[in-house]
Amino acid sequence: MGTFGQKDIFGKGIKDSIPIKFDSLKAAVVTAAKRPQLKGDTIEFNVEQVRMRRNAVVQDLLRRLPGLRIEIDGTITYNGEKIEHLLVGGEDIFQGGPGLVAQNFDADKIARVQILDRRSDRSRFSGVDDGTRIKTINLVLKESAKNGYSGRTEISSSAEGNYTAGGVVAGFRRKEQFAAIALSGNTGVINFEGGGETQATYSFTSDIGDPIGASAGTGIPRFSGASLHYSNQWDDCSHLMTNYQFGNLWTNPITKTEMVQVLSTGIYSQQQKSQSINKEEQQSGEVVFERNISPRSALQMSLQSLFGRSRNQLQAVSETRLNDTLLNSSLRNVIDQVNTDGIGGNLSWRLELGRLKSRILSFSARISKDDNKASGYIYSMNRFLERGTVNTNLDTLDQRKVVAAHNFSDQFELTYTQPVFHVIDLGFIYELTDGYSNPIQASYNRAGGKYTQLVDSLTNDLKVHTLSQQADISIQGKLKGLKYSVGTSWLYHYSAQKLRGEGSVLPLRNFYVVPRVLIDYLIRKALDMRINYEARTLQPSVSELASLKNNNDPLRLTIGNPNLRPSINQSLIVNFRLLRPWMVYTAFVFGFNSNSISTKTVTDSSGRQVSQPVNVKGGRTLGANLFINHAMGGIEWGFRSTNSYNRSINYVDATLNRSTVISASGGVSATKYVSNKYSIQLNADIKYLDSRNSVNASVTMHYWTQSHGASVRLFVIPHYEIGSSATVIWQERANEFSSNTSTVLWNAYLSRNLLHDDLRIKFLVNNVLDQNAGITRINKGNTNTQTASNILGRYWMLSVMYHFEKKLNKK
């Protein structure tokens, strides 16, 4: 959503809002793209005169801008921070999916690239700064692109049966936008051509989840999907924005997982091989309408919906050991079906009071309703070895499961801003949220060939009522180069749950005071700093509070904790940003947790574990990051270093365990682009991780990881393009993990342009060395996990792409 309403009613936009139009920078200096300008809170790159190859997409443009990086999975980061939204002309196309826009929209339509910390929807509408910032990219279109449409259609295929097909079209006329994209394929890649430097897979807007757990991972998706976007602003007082997405996804992941836990008695490990078939269909939509009902007031209405269906089937085999001694083995089959239906709406009204432009009163009301249900069957055969013998005990689980939740909530909010002095505004927020939930979990044993025998110890039918109130007062303002927002929230949270049909109620009441401070200071032109302190509360979920055992995995049981309290997370981030002559970004991070929601895991002699959420104290995080970009010798150099210290607390059996993880990484990148000749990009990163646990100080987990990449494109022959990219990932063997992991993902292509470069024929070879790059490691507390998933092996594709463009008659 753009800045409509604020600018029209009050005569000036909220300071971090996205401008409808900027005065263009002088276009004669091509290097303006490399050296951004700082405009308020916004970093802006002028790219209007940057020459891009025909058919280049936004992602190709972003790669050439210092500080921006495209990861192999399609994630966009700026100085290490993930970009959450990618806007086009201030509009959130395709409901916040940066990948679809970056990998499929034309780059030659972009005049400026803006990077900003966007305020929340509530803050931008009401004018009260709630401290929320969302890292966002806004693409400002060239004036020549605002009166026409363009797009492309492509089909790719191979002899092995791999294919991608689809099309994208985007049209603009003044303030009117339309965009549509349709994609289908079995390579799992959402960009055209079926592969390349970025292997971003298709994903849905929302994760509908699977509480029974019948998935082995991601695998190689086969998908078909479409997204639509339309927005318009007319009469300078009305604005409409709509998004719709449909997707159908089928995967067959094959996964090998190695899990290692540090216990006081030694190393507890599990090796699991799993395979699943997962089918999911999802539809989501969003409509936002805004109207200036008078010169001093505005109305906003929005509606969101989500409908999802999935069918899943899992088979898994595992072995569990303690210090190389086999404890148990398991065979588990799970079949389930998940349904999700959700709808929500919001109505907001804003009024300017008196003569002062910043005296604003606003009111909003929101309701939401969602129904979730998962039903399926679990069959698990577990063999337990008796200590010191070769005898085994067999335990078999054969149950039908039903997990459902019916949720309804309504929320009301009142905000008011009052100017006190020329540079100070007072902000007030009162928010009331009332929610009702009916979580259901039922287990049925098989009896007489049917699953009709209810297991009382694994069944509940709860009614949960929650009531939250928040009062917030803040001061905000601007004085020369200083911008600030300082506030405090008083939070009251009440929840009560009871079993259906019973009169006993378990109430929980919590009261918290939560401060925040956000200061931006422009030290001098092209140099600023930010101090951001905030405290946030995290409420326990209904499942964490329910005192009910969950045996979906009979070897990994979980049970809720009705005495669980909310956690409080405090963070302080101090960063400095220099744009000229060198681009330098530094960030220092301090995080402190009190009353954190952690786990207590008890392991018995047979290797079976029972985990329960508990509150702990003492968690903390320290971090220091440095990013430097500078052009030297015609090459754009980038240097980066990220370092962190993390201490987390959990219980291992009855012992309080302090896990300490130290991570240090560094990297360098070099980019060289010569128009109509070549493009070269090089990246090299190295990381070291050291993990220790107080429960057993003699066991440490430490290893090195290296990631190196290179991309070369040659354009020396007119109408031809030759390209190749390679990524090398190496991970050192980490104590109990089986071996080092080393993969090389190498792709190459040759393309030929015809018909004035509108038609392109391309031959692509993906994963030339036929290696598995789907290996990841995760560290959490005293647990380290390594997962290897199947990815598409070597394949070649022949693609034909046609690009079209047309100017429209002016209205």
Overview of the molecule:
This protein is mainly β and 811 residues long. The strands form three sheets. The chain has a 26-stranded antiparallel barrel. It has a five-stranded mixed β-sheet with strand order 1-2-7-8-6, with helices on one face. Strands 3-4-5 form a three-stranded antiparallel β-sheet. Strand 14 (254-263) and strand 15 (266-294) form a beta hairpin. The relative contact order is 0.10. The model is unreliable at 1-33 and 191-196 (pLDDT under 50).
Structural class: mainly beta
Quantity of strands, as a count: 42
Net shape: globular
Determine Rg (CA atoms, Å).
28 Å
Mean of residue pLDDT?
87
Report low-confidence residues grouped into runs of 5 or more.
1-33, 191-196
Helix content: under 10%
Total DSSP helices? 5
Strand content: over 45%
Our measurement of the CA-to-CA distance between the termini, rounded to an integer number of angstroms, reads: 24 Å
Major sheet attributes = 26 strands, antiparallel, barrel
State the gist of this model.
The chain has five helices and 42 strands. The chain is mainly beta and 811 residues long.
Layout of secondary structure:
Layout lengths: L5 H5 L26 E3 L2 E5 L11 H6 L4 E3 L5 E3 L2 E2 L2 E4 L9 H7 L5 E9 L2 H6 L7 E8 L5 E11 L5 E11 L2 E10 L36 E13 L3 E14 L2 E10 L2 E29 L2 E26 L2 E28 L7 E26 L6 E30 L2 E24 L2 E5 L5 E20 L2 E18 L6 E19 L2 E12 L3 H4 L3 E2 L5 E4 L7 E12 L4 E12 L1 E8 L5 E8 L2 E14 L2 E18 L2 E20 L3 E16 L6 E15 L5 E12 L9 E14 L4 E8 L8 E6 L2 E7 L5 E13 L4
